[in-house]
Amino acid sequence: xxxxxxxxxYNICGTPGCRCKDPENPQKHGxxxxxxxxxxxxxxxxxxxxxxxxxxxxxxxxxKQLRALTQEWVDLEMKRxxxxxxxxx
Length: 89
Ligand SMILES: [Zn+2]
Known about the structure:
This protein starts with a strand and ends with a helix. It contains one helix and three strands; from the N terminus they run E-E-E-H. The chain has one domain (5-86). Strand 2 and strand 3 (42-48) form a beta hairpin. The radius of gyration is 22 Å and the shape is elongated. By secondary structure, it is of the alpha+beta class. The protein has one helix at residues 53-86, and strands at residues 5-11, 29-39, 42-48. A three-stranded antiparallel sheet has the order 1-2-3, covered by helices on one side. The structure holds zinc ion. The site of zinc ion has 5 residues, from loops.
């Protein structure tokens, strides 16, 4: 699993006269896929190769699901604690 989200990037290159710099109809290079994430307080990003894209999407989805389930669990534990302490929700 992996935290973060995947975005599409389109780039302009350094080659003179390239189609990505066409003044009429510029066609940027891409899409390139970038995974941006924050882990242990540190933000990072990395490029994802096309052949690894589906696997990485699955890893991101797995992490999202773990987070959602963990938050639900903690919510319930906090609620239980509140009920034990005060006798009401
Ligand atoms: Zn170009």
